Amino acid sequence: MRNGLLTALLILSASCGFAQDQTTYEPSWTSLDSRPVPEWWLDAKFGIFVHWGVYSVPAYAPVGHYAEWYQYALQTNAHEGKVRDFHEKNFDKRSYYDLAQDFRATLFDPAEWASLFERSGARYVVLTAKHHDGFCLWPSAEADRTWGFPWNATSIGPRRDLVGELFEALRKTSVKPGLYYSLYEWFNPLWKQDRNRYAFEHALPQLHDLVTRYQPWVLWADGDWEETPETWRSAQFLAWLYNQSPVRDRIATNDRWGSGTHFQHGGFYTPEYQPELAFEHPWEESRGMGYSYGYNRAENAADYNSVQALILHLIDKVARGGNFLLDVGPDAYGKIPPIMQERLLEIGRWLAINGEAIYGSRRWRVPYQWSAGSLNYKHDPAKGDLILKQTLNPDPGYAAKELFYTYNPKTNSLYILLPRYPSDGRVVLRDVQLPYGADVTLLGSKSRPRIELSGSNTILNLPLYDPNAFAAPYAFVLKVANYGAFVGPVSIRVQYDSTSVRPVISLSCATPSAAIHYTTDGSAPTELSPRYERPFTLEESALVRARAFLYGQQPSREDSLRVRVPAFMPALSMYRQPQRGLVAEVVQPPEYTVSGLLYGSILKRGVLDGFELDPSCQQGKCGMIWKGYFYAPQTRGYEFFLESDDGSRLDIDNLTIVDNDGDHALRERSGVAYLQQGWHQLRLLYFNSGGQAALRVAYAPLGRSRAPIPTQQLGH
Predict the structure, then answer these.
(1) What's the CATH number where 650 sits?
(2) Helix (H) or strand (E) holding 166
């Protein structure tokens, strides 16, 4: 038996054994998701991503695209042929694989990299051990064997263990080393031939090799979306990683372990160039200094974020409870471009003064304070960086984030981070009343602001701005010592009585001893508002607003939820009994979105018993529409579930019940319809924009378990 296959079998047998012996984590998402993200990662806040590989030789993509996707763009002739034109002009008839010979890393100095990363203030580094092209930066025997030619950095190109050398250097610093690993490889022969064998005999042994050989602090999976977690054996691998591996007590992992796991399962969640996203769950946003992760020679200085913009990105993410993974893209020689070095060193200079507001901090009861104006921001990278528009350069009529908050629970310190120094020296903290004699300091300065109380607000009066007083004037931080302990958020949960369909509202607080007060009349909850004692019902739709209070602590943030008392959709008056099955149409839309399906040309029409996909959907792009009727056997609420890859939508009686639109991996969405007994009009729309195709439809009468919709309840 080959070593790789043996390794895979050992992982699977070890994890399964743990499950049977009732050890810590079983190979199931319920068990694996219960593992907390390590405390060191939550405290670290700032990490460096490194994209480096054969793609660093051409180092090209049209601005606004990823240069590390060079091989894919070359093979598929993407970006209007610009990558192929560039390749033929610069490399003639040489293939992408030939470029591995030019990936020399002759200027790679791991000690120099490690020193730079430490001086940047980063607490961990994630290096691309292997990207989607399959080239490995460590001596992977599986890589050369599966590809059939030298395809790792010790057998071609640098002929060095780049992962091992960087890890050795980082371990001499305060920076923790971690690894990125792409599960799939675009053009790997085994992947193209047999994905199941590829996952079991290639990817799984490589993961085991990386973990046991280098013992990383972070394992950052990617390239997972083309197959399910079952194909990747992700649950079994993670159970081994958490239970038996040499890094089981410290490893931090992410959420990219197969289609449908992103933002759902695994460790910390990983938005990518999605500054508007935040989660209660631990999360980390990554981004490049420009747009590309891998070095892109087409990007100019204007395409790079300024030092101030990057620091504001860091502040914004940390204030909202996340981490920031900032990418650098070294060139083929192993040199980190000077503009990237300069950005890192300046971030480090700012953190040397203000780092206590970042490291070890947690989200406060509110992450930031808005000025007056519209909050209806829409993220359009072509119109400027969102963080700059939300802080320094808001459009006319739009609000700005005047200040951010972070909180260190271990020291009971509240931090107020200012994107700009106020021209009049006044900082107004709304809905914050600092105690008399509060200890407030301006970090990096010897001055102490004068404190005024004004109603429920506090005004901090700073000295006039002196540009010579601040060594890194990219953002300014005020510290309030021995202050900031706050009541945790209120959770508002709604269940509907299965008979009356009246909503039953339950409230709970992350601080169990706190008193929860709520309102349903639109007013803000105070300690004089009704106190929550037990679940209550609503007779009409209302906005439930809740806040928790505890003596000696700041009250919780206000949480709210609009609760609807539903009206039943009347059943249709049918002049005939519907025939069994649904009318199904295969359509070619002008664009692959749910709404685009409605304007598509019909390629095929027939009657199906259920929601079976046409064979064309498994072969590539397609669109389908099912039309007919759904029979509600009782007057009650029904929850419908759509799990699809890519987009889907379910309409009942011309109302959208489940919206799962978008170009995405396998993902589930649900919605509730309140239906009178009888037949109701149904329409389901689905599209596959390429790659894997999947659609699963289920329903559940409220209060009961879910199941596929019986064929006798579908008609046309």
Answers:
(1) 2.60.120.1560
(2) helix 162-170
Q: What is the CATH number of the domain that holds 458?
A: 2.60.40.1180
CB-based contacts of 395, cutoff 8 Å, min separation 6? 389
Per-residue burial over 381-395, b = 16 or more CB atoms within 10 Å of its CB, e = otherwise? eeeebbbbbbbeebe
CA 55 to chain centre: 25
Question: For 455-513, how does the pLDDT look when each residue is reduced to its tens digit (9 = 90+)?
Answer: 989 999 999 999 888 999 999 999 999 999 999 999 999 988 766 778 999 999 999 99
**Residue 397 · residue 370 · CB < 8 Å:** no
Residue 498 belongs to domain with CATH number? 2.60.40.10
Quick one: which of 594, 587, 598 has its CA closest to 661?
594
638: which strand partners?
673, 701
Q: What is the CATH number of the domain that holds 134?
A: 3.20.20.80
Domain count, the chain: 4
Out of 481, 514, 536, pick the residue that ends a domain: 481
129 and 268 co-located in one domain? yes
What whole-number distance in Å separates Cα of residue 310 and Cα of residue 330?
Answer: 19
Which residue type does 675 have? L
Boundary residue ending a domain (421, 455, 481):
481
Are the CB atoms for 380 and 395 separated by under 8 Å? no
- Is residue 130 domain-resident? yes
Same domain, 500 and 449: no
Q: Taking the mean position of all CA atoms in its chain, how far away is CA 577? A: 48
CA atoms within 13 A on the CB side of 205: 20
Q: Judge whether 72 lies within some domain.
A: no
Give the range of the structural domain holding residue 650, as residue numbers without chain letter.
Answer: 582-715
Distance CA 318, CA 44 (A): 10
440 and 527, same domain (yes or no)? no
Distances (CA, A) of 374 to 14, 83, 312, 333, 590: 55, 41, 20, 48, 34
Both 474 and 535 in a single domain? Answer: no
Look at residues 676, 681, 678, 51 and name the one whose alpha carbon lies nearest to residue 332. 51
Residues 230 and 136 in one domain: yes
User: Rounded distance, CA 637 to CA 264, Å?
Assistant: 26
- pLDDT, tens digit, for every residue of 674-696? 999 999 999 999 999 877 889 99
Backbone angles phi, psi at 142, to 5 degrees: -60, -35
Query: How far is residue 641's CA from residue 704's CA, in Å, rounded to a whole number?
Result: 14
557 and 605: one domain? no
Q: What would the pLDDT profile of 430-456 be if each residue is shown by its tens digit?
A: 999 999 899 999 999 988 999 999 998
Cβ atoms 584, 606 nearer than 8 A: yes
8 Å CB contact between 311 and 121: no
Angle at 284 between CA 280 and CA 285, to 5 degrees: 115
Is residue 117 located within the same domain as residue 252?
Answer: yes
pTM reported for the whole predicted model: 0.85
Cα–Cα distance, 325 to 313 (Å, whole number):
10
Of 404, 401, 430, which is closest to residue 558 (Cα–Cα)?
A: 430
Q: Is residue 294 part of a domain?
A: no
Strand partners, 605: 585
Contact, 186 vs 148, CB < 8 A? no
Say whether both 237 and 316 belong to one domain. yes
**pLDDT for 170-222, tens place per residue?**
999 999 999 999 999 999 999 999 999 999 999 999 999 999 999 999 999 99
Residue 572 in domain? no
Measured distance CA(395)–CA(379) in Å, rounded: 13
DSSP 561: E
Tokens 């747009």 locate to: 291
